[in-house]
Amino acid sequence: MRVVALISGGKDSTYNMMCAVADGHEIVALANMEPKGADELDSYMYQTVGHQTITRYGEAMQLPLFRSHIRGTPRLQSKDYQVTPDDEVEDLFDLLVDIQGSVKFDAIAAGAILSEYQTLRVLNICKRLDVQALTYLWQRNQRELLQEMIECDVIAILIKVAALGLSPQKHLGQKLADIQDHLLGMEDSYGCNPCGEGGEYETLTLDCPLFHQRIVLDEVETVVVNDDTVAPVAYLNPKRFHLEPKKGFDGRQSQFACLQKYLDILTVSISRSIHRKGLGSCQNFNE
Predict the structure, then answer these.
(1) Where are the alpha helices (DSSP H) in the chain?
(2) In contact, 41 and 146? CB cutoff 8 Å
(3) Nearest to 174 by CA among 186, 194, 156
(4) Domain 2-141+250-277 is in which class?
(5) Which helix (H) or strand (E) holds 217?
(6) What are the pLDDT tens digits along the chain (287 aa)?
């Protein structure tokens, strides 16, 4: 199928794209919702930290990138979603309607892992657009997922921390591979989610096998939201960044060819996904 990938800049949407391609689909466009007048929004639906770098994702993947501002708010906060004027979900729906006018697609890829709030809203949108939802990470074991992402060279850094055990000074900017043991230890000690599904941290993907060029951060600003001594909240605000060619990368490769090295891992990952049992389809979920 031809797929529009919903991207936040985080590791989950990146890895979900890789699973979709490994499963035989083609990413034909990227879609992103960006904040208006702020860097970090109190949104249940969207990650907005690091939004500045999203401008380079289309070029990095050699794909059209469609963006729109988040104008609405989470007006309907119940788990199940019905069309609600001025809700932030309608901003995404409107963007995808616009994309349908210029790009033919059959499915939407979304990287939600545990959030029913996000997943049910994406599936609601899919049903209204008459397309499929590709949600390979849905309800996956987070320890397994984190390991798979690292083994598949998803190069992502912590761009926000908000949990006991994470320090802005020590952990912001660290790569997943370098902090993996610490994240697993946080689960053992405090019950934290290894993939950050409880809001413990957010990530920014700088490179992955689908990128033709990698993103390099030249200058970042640390923004402290809450300097609590137990669980401080802070994030990195990218100020300057650029794309860097990847040595030995053949830009003419197909998306699937880019993943050849990782197909064994991705095939196992896809087999573990309940998406393959039909639960990722809007026809079989929330009806």
Answers:
(1) 11-22, 57-61, 88-100, 116-129, 142-151, 168-171, 176-190, 255-258, 263-271
(2) no
(3) 156
(4) alpha beta
(5) strand 213-226
(6) 999 999 999 999 999 999 999 999 999 999 999 998 888 887 889 999 999 999 999 999 999 999 999 999 999 999 899 999 999 999 999 999 999 999 999 999 999 999 999 999 999 999 999 999 999 999 999 999 999 999 999 999 999 999 999 999 999 999 999 999 999 999 999 999 999 999 999 999 999 999 999 999 999 999 999 999 999 999 999 999 999 999 878 778 899 999 999 999 999 999 999 865 544 444 444 33
Of 152, 227, 236, the residue nearest 202 (C-alpha): 236
User: The domain at 156-245 falls in which architecture?
Assistant: Alpha-Beta Complex (3.90)
Distance CA 31, CA 59 (A): 13
Looking at residue 65, what DSSP letter applies?
E
Cβ proximity of 190 and 229 under 8 Å: no
Structure tokens at 147: 């390991």
End-to-end alpha carbon distance in the chain:
23
Nearest residue to 182 (alpha-carbon basis) of 165, 203, 204: 165
Tokens of 123: 């599936």
Burial of 275 (0-12, 13-18, 19+ CB in 10 A): buried
CA distance 158 to 11: 10
Type of residue at 200: E
Q: Report DSSP state, residue 157.
A: E
Q: pTM for the whole thing? A: 0.95
Q: What are the extents of the domains in the chain?
A: 2-141+250-277, 156-245
Q: List phi, psi (to 5°) of 110.
A: -135, 140
Q: Which residue has the tokens 């949104």?
A: 43
Residue type at 25? H
